């Protein structure tokens, strides 16, 4: 995640390594659970659950985050920030644990609670280290937290299709829940910070009433939101193609992680606007190309498309939030919550939609074509409002 600005201070503080370790542990556990969901989708479908019903679990996760981020930020303005983060990790850990019961009802409850908990933990955790650091250290500390979540997601996505069929659904779930709960316990013991200055409810949507602000919010649909769609369905895509599934998923996961660093380099070289705009266009073309490769059953095209989307999701994330924090609300907590509100809210139908189109067409081409067309529309909006 890009910089969440801290309170101004004249003193340079050392990096809060204990806080980074505590919050980062919890976020890594949440990443494991989010990234591993695709393996559980495969099990549900194998048990006769329709693809759209299985995909709805990730839609509920996105809805949970959508519903939690603003209340969580408001709560950090009334009580200690680390307590809000710890409570989020505990709620998410409980939700992850429910996923050990492989029924559709338990899966839905699991994903919803995970989304609610992650929304609270992410906002409050990022805010906590932002209030404990100054200047460039804020970007460094929060970048570490974002990297730990992304690393957990990458590990869960790549390892899930191997570990879940081998060990069963319960063991990986309990492991991820344990890591998240440990992060919550460590976070609860951190030094007290906050509460932060209060704000009004309307402040969270006001930055997105302009066309440029809305384009920034929609950019988060194409990065974080569609990354969640990918983590839901990519395991099933490679399982249905003549591909070395583990190698392709590892390639996608590595591309997502490496893409974060590439995005920073491109931003310094070409600027944030050009980096985000160019990557959005590239991602739209890759998704449309992936849909075409699936339609003609080109194994090489599918493998290349899946890996390249990892860069498409990873590269623009940091520059996008860098622009948001510099151009939207002065209150960084409002900006972070608002970006997550728009990004999760506008993307939440897509995990279900891909499954629905799979059931209707007996293939993934239509679903990924819809995603590509959506990213293309976001790019056009970006070009006309933000530029680059």
From TrEMBL:
Top-level taxon in the UniProt lineage: Archaea
Bilayer-crossing regions: 15-41, 53-72, 84-102, 108-131, 143-164, 170-192, 213-235, 241-262, 274-294, 300-325, 332-352, 364-382
GO molecular function, a single term: transmembrane transporter activity
GO cellular component: plasma membrane
This protein's record includes keyword Repeat: no
Membrane-related topology note: Multi-pass membrane protein
InterPro entries (UniProt xref): MFS, MFS_Efflux_Transporters, MFS_trans_sf
Subcellular location: Cell membrane
Keywords: Cell membrane, Membrane, Transmembrane, Transmembrane helix
Pfam family, one: MFS_1
Keyword Lipid metabolism: no
PANTHER family, alphabetized: CHLORAMPHENICOL EFFLUX PUMP RV0191, PURINE EFFLUX PUMP PBUE
Protein name: MFS transporter, DHA1 family, inner membrane transport protein
């Amino acid at each position: 995640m890009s910089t969440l600005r801290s309170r101004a201070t004249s003193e340079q503080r050392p990096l809060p390594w204990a806080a980074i370790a505590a919050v980062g542990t919890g976020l890594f556990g949440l990443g494991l659970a989010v990234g591993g969901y695709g393996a559980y989708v495969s099990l549900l479908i194998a048990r006769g659950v329709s693809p759209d019903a299985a995909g709805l679990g990730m839609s509920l996760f996105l809805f949970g985050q959508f519903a939690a981020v603003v209340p969580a930020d408001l709560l950090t303005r009334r009580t200690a920030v680390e307590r809000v983060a710890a409570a989020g990790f505990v709620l998410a850990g409980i939700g992850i644990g429910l996923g050990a019961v492989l029924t559709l009802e338990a899966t839905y409850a699991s994903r919803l609670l995970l989304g609610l908990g992650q929304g609270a933990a992410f906002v409050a955790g990022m805010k906590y280290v932002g209030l404990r650091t100054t200047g460039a250290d804020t970007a460094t500390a929060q970048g570490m937290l974002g990297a730990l979540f992304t690393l957990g997601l990458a590990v869960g996505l790549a390892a899930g299709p191997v570990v879940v069929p081998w060990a069963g659904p319960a063991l990986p779930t309990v492991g991820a829940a344990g890591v998240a709960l440990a992060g919550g316990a460590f976070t609860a013991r951190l030094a007290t910070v906050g509460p932060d200055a209060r704000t009004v409810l309307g402040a969270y949507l006001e930055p997105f009433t302009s066309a440029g602000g809305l384009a920034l919010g929609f950019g988060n649909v194409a990065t974080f939101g569609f990354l969640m769609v990918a983590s839901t369905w990519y395991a099933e895509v490679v399982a249905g193609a003549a591909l070395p599934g583990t190698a392709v998923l590892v390639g996608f996961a590595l591309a997502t992680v490496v893409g974060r660093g590439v995005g920073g380099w491109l931003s310094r070289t070409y600027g944030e606007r050009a980096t985000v705009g160019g990557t959005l266009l590239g991602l739209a073309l890759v998704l449309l190309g992936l849909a075409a490769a699936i339609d003609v059953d080109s194994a090489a095209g599918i493998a290349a498309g899946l890996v390249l989307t990892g860069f498409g999701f990873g590269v623009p994330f940091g520059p996008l939030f860098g622009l948001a924090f510099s151009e939207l609300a002065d209150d960084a907590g409002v900006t972070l919550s608002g970006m997550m509100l728009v990004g999760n809210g506008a993307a939440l139908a897509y995990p279900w939609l891909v499954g629905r189109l799979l059931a209707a067409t007996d293939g993934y081409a239509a679903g990924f074509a819809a995603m590509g067309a959506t990213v293309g529309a976001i790019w056009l909006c970006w070009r006309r409002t933000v530029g680059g």
